[in-house]
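FYI - complex with beta-D-glucopyranose, inputs then prediction.
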Amino acid sequence: MSLLKPIYRHFYLVVSIFLLSLYSTSVHSQQQPTRPSAAYQSRLEIIESKIDSILSLLTLKEKVSMCHAQSQFSSPGIPRLGIPELWMSDGPHGIRAEINWSNWDYSGWTNDYITAFPALTCLAATFNPSLSNQYGASIGEEARYRKKDVLLGPGVNIYRTPLNGRNFEYMGEDPYLASTMVVPYIKGVQNNGVAACVKHFALNNQELWRNHINVQVSDRALYEIYLPAFDAAVKQGEAWSIMGAYNQFRGQHCSHHELLLNKILKKDWAFDGVVVSDWGGTHNTNEAALYGLDIEMGSPIDKQTSPRQAFDANFLGTSFLNLLKSGEIDERILDDKVRRILRLMMRTTLDFMRPLGKINNIEHSMVARQVAIEGVVLLKNKDNFFPLNTTQKLTIAVIGENAVKSMTTGGGSSELKANYEISPLEGIKKRFKNASIIFSKGYTSEDTNQSRKLLINEALVTASMADVVLFFGGLNKNRGQDCEAADREELKLPYNQDYLIAELQKVNPNIGVVLVSGNAVSMPWIYDVKTVFQAWYLGSEAGNAIADIISGDSNPSGKLPFSFPVKLSDNSAHFFGELSYPGDGETQYYKDDILVGYRWHDTKDIRPLFSFGHRLSYSSFEITDIKSDKKIYEASDSINITYKLKNTGSKDGAEVVQVYVGKSNSKVTRALKELKGFKKTFLKSGKQTKEEIIINVSDLSFYNESISGWDLERGDYAIYVGNASNAISKLMIIKIK
Ligand code: BGC
């Protein structure tokens, strides 16, 4: 190679990159076989040797340049060799609008309108992994069309407290649910030749003090609760990149963390992709170099220098180069990072066969609408309040700011520039053509001179004139609500909504509440209203999907992906006081340990307002004939649970059967039961089907800190089968030998 003249060398490189990209396409567009075939193995080896040959052409400076940003959302390629740049974008609910080169202002382009998909809490609530795959595939297409190589999402931090301002971007409180839902999302995205960047690794479970809070948590809770979704994303989803979190864990920042990144992620899980820092989450050159960070992202630290060099002053820039030149850091450390970055490029920018992508097409809108329909959760439905009759000449009073407020804007980095966004009010007007729809705002989140008293009075008059009142409230994407960089301050609804609902109910008791939020809220009025449904943030198709449910065109089938506590102190993170949440300003101790969410409510018998896995339907379902294939199992076995599911109601619909497992007489503290399997089945009215859920016995292990590994206890286990964590149809005891 070195004997070739430069021009031929360049030609050789381009040709080899092209060939390589063919290999990389064929490797990544197929499902990886369980046992790699010889041909597959040899293709991988060819790719690795090509990466090495590109690496050998790069200067030290070029290699360092690849390890840090060149702009707010890109890292450089190698122009003289034709190696393209990497372009990244938020994530995780749609592709974010273009942002300026070296500041956070929007660029004001007009070609960056996109489809806004429902927030990930809603996706989790569908309990439908194949829909998650369609979501990933659609958002991946939009990323590709917008020329993005890395999608900054999905987020899988565990829902620990209802105050976390970013819960709406995550997949709920249960590690099994989050793991099951994240894998197909990643595969869908990456099939487009766009990398998913799974975030925020790890323990970024609150926004308050997120840049420095030092999380102390046991190994057991780490492995059993906070890591599984990342583990699944890497091992099953084969994610090509991961984002280090802002916070500290055991005294070290997570974006350069020896235990999390070097040991667990790269060594134990054999992650072969790229670790990207959270934006501005890098704090030290030596640690960044040595403890697993590959690309430092964030704004330029040096605001004085021209935009062309400004990012060189960041930690993995010039100071990193100097440490390499002086020999204080071994070049092999750098080479490992660059090898990973080149591998990411082979999978994305250098994969010339990757699809071209699509944006704002009808199919994406349909996926967004379907996720929204399947994700909304009917929490209460007294007197069959919903569905509303669409043929009657009803007067419907729609009350509340959330009936008209845009929920795709705000919220922080997940903010979107939606091509369109149907508000709930628009959706209802469109669907209920025979009805007379009257609207009143009732409350406002804005600092205005508008009299709040006047708003309430107007709403009461509106409500008194109607046959039906639909109150649209909840939270929103303002700072201090469901929004990045701050937490909520209380569980209760903001803007005096509790008072407003109570007053509305007095003038018109025929009232239903639609909660638009990504978090649990308290509901002091729950017994006074007829209906409550949890509508999340539903994206472009919000109003249509809500109208689909209210009209009965669709039957609600979403399940809660987290518990709603009655009061804040009923939640385990809060039960243990300030040191547990939010910490003392420097450190926090996860005293709730493994008892997060329903694990806590169940085990301590503290009744939640609404349980994990809960939902109602316009139909009814019966689960019968629940059986396990055996009574006694070996460690290497799987447990086959079979059941019959019947739609006994008059409407077609879906049910999610859930299997939880618990162990009494354990040598360690255990949750009463933990989700280990679920299946969503659509059934026409009156139809019955036989279904099966399979659980690996090895998945019943707990993380044993004394051996630093998974440990399967022998003895009796309880298997609970039902349709919510608090609605168990059958309890069976099995034995593990
Ligand atoms: C967020 C990330 C996001 C990044 C880029 C950070 O503040 O924590 O989730 O991807 O900004 O916008």
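The first helix runs from residue 6 to 28. The chain is about 30% helix and 20% strand.
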